[in-house]
Amino acid sequence: MTQAKRTHYEVLGVAANSSVEVIKAAYRQKIRQAHPDSSGSTASTTEVAAINEAWNVLSQPGRRALYDRSLTSTTSVPAPEQRIVVPQVSFERARFPWRLVLGLIAVGAAGVLVLNAVSQPAGPTGPDGLLSGGSCVVIDATQAAVEVPCTEPHDAVVQQLIGFDMTCPTDTEAFRDRQGMGTACVVRR
Prior knowledge:
It is built from six helices and five strands; from the N terminus they run ααααααβββββ.
């Protein structure tokens, strides 16, 4: 024996002309009665699903109007005015702005070239106090190597800077670095 399909109004126990507030109150009452966590009821999941479906349809005016029209219709196929047409929307992939990027690169390159053309060349840099290969040095009274500009008079040129526990090559002389960084192997001029 098959049971006749109940309408959403029958599921919630409200009249077809009920307001949304009445439907909402009826939905809350029915879901509390049917939900197993709140009442300990053994209502089936199909009953809870039917209550939720009834609420989803009857709480939205557009869906409720379509549903009401389907109840008054005698045919199972909806009339053409009841069919919902979903337009097919095609999206075009976003295009990468290559022209803009290339334009910015060209403007940046032109700016660098112009700035390079109008800028003054940098003068020679002075000593930074740290000895390295090629640094010009003078030997002070404590036998320490002190860096000086190569344009000024100097005693020697550093070939390499080594640790305190190492020895300089035979063609160089060893002097301690005034900064305490190691031993400077220098070639006298």
